[in-house]
Amino acid sequence: MNGPRLVCGGISFHEAPVEILEKVSFPKESHAQILHKLQSELDLEEIVLLSTCNRVEFFAVAKSNSIPSVQWPEFLQRYHQIPETISDHTFCVEGTACIEHLFEVASGLQSMVVGETEIFGQIKEAYETATNQKTTGKWLHKLFQSSFNAAKEVRSQTAITRGSVSVGSVSVELAEKIFGSLHTRKALVIGAGDTSEKTARALMSRGISSLFVTNRTNDKAYQLAQELQGEAIPWENWKKKAVDVDILISSTTAPDFVLHQAEARTLIQQRRGSPLFLIDLAIPRDFDPEINKLEGLYLYNLDDLQKISNQHLQDRGGEIEKARQILRPHVHKLIDWISKHKKITGFSTYPHPHKPD
Amino acid sequence: MNDRLWFLVAALIIAASTLWSFLSNQNNSLTRRGVQFLLALALISLSLFLMQRGELIRRCPLTNGFEATAFLTWGVLLTYFLIGSSYRLSILGAFTAPLALLLLTLGGLFSSDQPSNDLNPVRWSSEFHAAISILSYGTLGLAAVCSLMYLIQEHHLKKHTFTGWFDRLPSMGDLEIVLHRLLRWGFLLMTLGMLSGFATGLFDQVSKIKLLWATVVWSWYLGLLLSPFLLRLSHRRFAWMALIGYILVLLSFGIMNSLIGNHS
Q: In this prediction, what percent of chain A has a pLDDT beyond 70?
């Protein structure tokens, strides 16, 4: 290689176990300092550092004498004081492969949950930090702007981001299918379990108007209600309260059902036919499955929610090839632009570092 | 251009929009806008048919089953565009198109089109009565489309099945809002149509069966609109009743066509 080269390297959940990933990640507040360290120690002209819980990667323009494939794992080992060799878990690619890799990461194709959009924001933030630290220049500006455009097109032209993939978000999606906007809806959480708390938080993020919490131990109910900015209801009163709410989330450790079909029938009659969404997150189940046979009641248990989530993941996986087809012209366009400017080299065909599982 | 050609053009455009909406991704804004654009073109074509036919026969084009079906389809499409963009749910066009296609096909296949050569002057009140009644049928037709969409969505939510084309349906809550709005407007128009029918002064000439049937249909919709206050009716049953109501409307429309001679 004669001139500077476009390179990227990293370590991600594809190559490394979680024990190593935990050791190599950089806290957000240290990114500015790390950028300058990397720039000098790896002989880089420009650099952007991306550090999330699933990947630590850099995108750079390397000087002609730089050997990032060797220097990068050494830097990680030295900085984090890791005794064992980690070079087997890292990757480093150049030129076209580097462009393809960033475009795929930004589009969510390389994420653990394919199609998740959080990575797009994380890349934007990483790019902004580098720009503020003046470690980016003409080449990385162009690379990252192109990756944002490509990722946006993938998101709008494919179903890669469609369908929720966690129990909480699937529940929210179902609630919105039943009620439309959740702004006037009320929810009652029965039992102060972790999953029900997450689901309640997901519903609150979509603007439900009121949240009530009940638990056999009143203290726990008050504690969770306080955390969620809701209202605690004494255990003996929750069935009365259920008449006024639209969503019931249950995750108690009760050995028997906390709501039987006969009680649910009375409940729906008192609601004058207004729909009620029941989310049963407990094992063993809290709501009698026969309840789903009643009109106006929509019952989903953990297994149902998991199945929907898996289906969505499968659907997203099916969109990967379509997404790659969309990215291809963006990659070619950027290579053409780089070739016209004839400064950085190394745009032969490189093998792709890895494909999603 | 011959007026019947405009009818044919409208039918072909609606067939194309039906195909497009069922074969493509409804979440794609291009499909939604494309279907809307085609339905707008179909509305224009039908308007041209009705205008030319009106000029030819010198009266409101409701003198035979063919014209009445075209007018009804026009009413359905007009309502689709009049309900406003916030209520024009993303997928409503995909359901409106097949209803419009069905109506035009039935009109084209089963109603003979003999343009009226009756030169006697027609009372404006009679024409107003006929036009407003058919517009109400159009609005209630769209309400029936919403009911059908609601029932499909409800079925899928109950059975936990979310794959395929129907996964794109709007929420039950949104469909209910649109359904109630359309039912209110449809009922208001139907009431206006009935009142204007009494005002024509031709009350004695109308078939008693037709009159009775119209009263049954009107009472059905009145009961439906009052049911949330009077009955513990599930929302699913409400949707079923709105759908059955429209079957009554179509039967009423059929009766009107068969009695068109003594009704015009």
A: 95
Q: Which fold has domain A5-160+319-341?
A: Beta Polymerase; domain 2 (3.30.460)
Annotated catalytic residue A8: no
Q: Is the pLDDT of residue B90 over 90?
A: no
Range scoring the smallest mean pLDDT among A121-135, A137-151, B151-165:
B151-165
pLDDT of residue B88: 57
Interchain proximity B174–A180, CB inside 8 Å: yes
Q: Residue B35: which H helix or E strand, with range?
A: helix B29-57
CA distance A145 to chain B (A): 25
CB within 8 Å of A252: residues ≥ 6 apart: A190, A191, A193, A215, A216, A258, A282, A286
Q: Give B27-63 pLDDT, tens digit per residue.
A: 566 777 888 889 899 999 999 988 888 888 777 777 7
Closest residue, chain B, to A304 (C-alpha): B160
User: Parallel, antiparallel, or unpaired for β A247-250 and A276-280?
Assistant: parallel
Contact A296 B234 (CB under 8 A): yes
Q: pTM for this one? A: 0.73
Give me the CATH topology for the region A167-311: Rossmann fold (3.40.50)
Task: With CB atoms and an 8 Å threshold, state whether B177 touches A180.
Answer: yes
For chain A, the structural domain boundaries read 5-160+319-341, 167-311
Q: Where are the alpha helices (DSSP H) in B111-234?
A: 124-159, 172-199, 208-230
Among all chains, which residue has been given the structure tokens 């379990």? A193
Chain A residues inside the 8 Å CB shell of B89? none
Closest to B158 (Cα-Cα) out of B236, B231, B92: B236
CA-based nearest distance A176→chain B, Å:
6
Residues from chain B that touch A181, judged by Cβ atoms under 8 A, are 173
Q: Scanning every residue of chain A, which has its alpha carbon at the shortest distance from the alpha carbon of B158?
A: A298
Whether B242 and B256 have beta carbons less than 8 Å apart is answered as no
Q: In the prediction, which pLDDT does B115 show?
A: 67
* Predicted pLDDT at A84: 87
Is B160's CB within 8 Å of A311's CB? no
Best of B30, B32, B86, B158 to disrupt the A interface by mutation (most A CBs within 10 Å)? Answer: B158
A292: DSSP letter: G
